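Re: export button greyed out
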Amino acid sequence: MHAIIVAALSVAGLLVVAGCQTTPEEQKAAGVEDRSKPGATGKPGADVRSVDRPKIAAVDVTAGRKDAASALKDPASILSKRSIYYDLDKFDVRDEYRGLVEAHAKYLRENPAARILIQGNTDERGSREYNVGLGQRRSDNVKRMLVLLGAREDQIESVSLGEEKPQADGQSEDAWSKNRRSDILYSGEY
Amino acid sequence: MRFLLGLIFLITAPHAAAQLQIEITGPGVQRTPIAIVPFTGEVNVGSSLTAIVRADLERSGLFRGLEVPPLAPHPNENSPINFGEWRSRLADALVVGSVAANADGRYEVRFRVYDIVKQAPLGAIAYLFTKDNARAAAHRIADFVYEKLTGEKGVFSTQIAYIVKRATTYELQIADADGERAQYLLRSNEPIISPVWSPEGRRIAYVSFESKKPIVYVHHLSENKRQVVASFKGSNSAPAWSPDGKTIAVVLSVEGGSQIYLLNSDGSGPRRRISNSSSIDTEPRYSTDGKWLYFTSDRGGSPQIYRMASTGGEPQRVTFKGSYNVSPRPSPDGRVLAYVTRDAGKFQVALLDLSNQQVQVITDSDRDESPSFAPNGRMILLATVRGGRGVLSAVSSDGRIRQHLPYAGGDVREPSWGPFIE
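Workaround output, generated via the alternate export path:
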């Protein structure tokens, strides 16, 4: 009995609130911007523009993301480039990789739901745990650059694989230079 | 859960056993000649206890086993000893004993140790064991003999842990100190590094990359289960146990960089950050008394070893010689620090005497890493590369005795020597 009364009062309350927010006329015009009111330009053709649906958001969130997602794998797109290589004992992103980092920053800006993992790597020389630290310094630097370029901090996790996941085997500078790198992985890829 | 697919926890049959090669280098190594008479009745337990005891003692680099001719009557622990005869056979020490089947199906070994030079009995003891633990019994015998003759505890009954990489498979294995009876605790398709034994020997902490990033786990050996202890955003690595086993120091990047934090080893409670730098601070290790944390840091421009109070505080630099000093490992008695130093492109194990700052490089290979002290401090186990393959090597803390443990069909690395077993 009490429950029914409470429910009824709640419904009444909602109606009152709704009544306060909008007039019946405004409700009828929902989705249509009325530019025929006094003060509007009144030019012919203004009414046509006024029925625009919020399609901009629809383009950004669905169509736009779909295109970009395939670009992540498209060899013709810079977004398919995921590795940044380093000189010996260097941790900053070389100029030749700036475009790559900028492209991923733009993608993260335009796709707020996107998440990435940056894995820093080193060559095999030296202590395995110290190399985990050095790889972290590489991935942290890429992350910092992406955030400065407008990506959100919570979109990015920077980690280190140290010397454990070499791209090339062998004890040559050629192999080592392939192993000093940061790799970018998008969610679903790790 | 999907990451668990690549992993198998169960302990199964051992792989090809490691084979030891002993190298004794350097002049003036005096090895005590010891006669270990085959125990009467030992053929019934399947493996020759006395052969294992002899191999253990020789591996220490302190003893040389003598060939014992056939004797009639065959002496055992109850026989009278003719010291003059044993002296003529050039023995300084003698072990005699017997093995008998017990009513409950177990075996009992009884043996006696003699000092031939002083013509004195040093001690006797009996052990009970099942047939499939004959090797363990032999290691206990070797520990007893070693302690009677050197005055130090033996480490033949201890275990070691290490990582084996075969093609794209990684295994965390444990084995007896002689490399035998190997079994795996964890098998993964992604790297595993930095295994460390807990002080009581029932748990091993390690870093696994099975989730595409480093995460710290603690594996409970007898329950064959494991738990995540550090899985924060970013990297989680370099675990180290406090001497009471209650705390694990780890390196986290959760606040950026690589910094040292303390965690309760059971995974409870919050993380406590104890290093505060913009540099890499890693590879923490507690001193045996628990007062200090040694660690590697590049705060001075190159990686060097520092120490701070284990509750946190201002770090002091410990290593000064050379431009690359990493992987600090305090000795069990706290007097010496083992670490890896780079000199002219070679990575070698060095010992720093903490009382007088003397440094001694004790290895002569060029890719040594991950030193680990035996619990009695006499030997250091390390990883090195021989013939293009990763192998384990053990070197005496004076650098004169070196042994290699080649392993069939894989790269072996990241050794950790377990504690004394009570």
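The CA atoms of residues 260 and 275 of chain B lie 5 Å apart. The button fix ships in the next patch.
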